TrEMBL record:
Organism domain of life: Eukaryota
Protein's UniProt name: Short-chain dehydrogenase/reductase ATR9
Length: 246
């Protein structure tokens, strides 16, 4: 079985959720070094402690990174040295609008709407231009299902996700033979809707073939596959429980 033995894995957004799942899975697949980065020092330190508690082989390190700051992203990339795989899991999940609406569903200006691109699009764009990979390395971005199955009120999110698919293909062409791919998980509901969470989760579960939300560990397997398979690039991988079939 192919592993990540002797590989260095960097996970931006690795202190919680999918990012933490990817960091843990990387260690389980025998990565030599896993570096997680997030904007909150306390969360980074807590995540490093949790990962070390599994007593898996491999070194774990944490870095504080303001991924909204292009200069900070450039400095972070320069300090990494050579790495094998970089995962960008997208950063903070914004709160929804009042009444349970989707995040960014009431944007009235370019200035308000730009926030959705800052972490998910511009962050990995800047990182890709500055990070240095070992031969066989890859960059994995994180999108969502909204680009192909828009939600009422979610047209800005649909545009942002579609832009990520284009960015993935462009970066794959530009930086070949470094591979660039995109993981598109199903909706992440738990931080978006506050007091409306339970009713909205129940409603959307009925629109998923598997009738449940995915676990971070399940979604993490897609990232591991993209690291290990050396013959895939420029591709989106959907991990959404059959949501797009209903």
């Amino acid at each position: 079985m192919s592993t990540l033995q002797n590989k260095t894995i960097v996970v931006v957004g690795g202190s919680s959720g999918i990012g933490f799942g990817v960091a843990l899975a990387s260690l389980q697949y025998l990565a030599a070094t896993v570096i997680i980065a997030s904007s909150n020092k306390g969360r980074v330190e807590g995540a490093v402690s949790r990962l070390k508690a599994y007593n898996l082989p491999g070194e774990v390190r944490g870095e504080v990174l303001d991924a909204k700051d292009s200069s900070a992203v450039k400095a972070f990339a320069a300090a990494l040295g050579l790495v094998d795989h970089v995962v960008w899991t997208g950063g903070e999940v914004p709160k929804g609008e009042e009444g349970g609406g989707l995040p960014y569903s009431n944007v009235q200006s370019a200035e308000e709407g730009q926030a959705i691109f800052t972490l998910g699009f511009w962050g990995p764009f800047i990182l890709a231009r500055n990070v240095k990979f070992n031969p066989g390395g890859s960059l994995i971005l994180t999108g969502g299902v909204a680009g192909h199955r828009p939600f009422p009120g979610g047209y800005l999110a649909s545009g942002a996700v579609s832009a990520l698919e284009g960015l993935t293909r462009g970066l794959a062409l530009e930086f070949s033979p470094i591979r660039v791919n995109l993981v598109c998980p199903g909706m992440i509901l738990d931080k978006m809707f506050g007091e409306h969470k339970d009713s909205i989760v129940k409603a959307y579960n009925e629109k998923i073939l598997l009738k449940r939300a995915g676990e971070p560990s399940e979604i993490a397997e897609a990232y591991i596959f993209l690291m290990k398979c050396g013959y895939i690039t420029g591709q989106p991988i959907y991990v959404e429980g059959g949501f797009m079939l209903l």
